[in-house]
Amino acid sequence: MRGGCRLFPLLLLALLRGLCHGREPAPGAVTCGSVLKLLNTRHSVRLHSHEVKYGSGSGQQSVTGVEASDDANSYWRIRGKSDGSCQRGTPVKCGQAIRLTHVNTGKNLHTHHFPSPLSSNQEVSAFGDDGEGDDLDIWIVQCSGTYWEREDAVRFKHVGTEVFLSITGEQYGHPIRGQREVHGMPTANHHNYWKAMEGVFIKPSMDPAKHDEL
Question: pLDDT of 70-84, one tens digit each?
Answer without folding.
Answer: 999 999 999 999 877
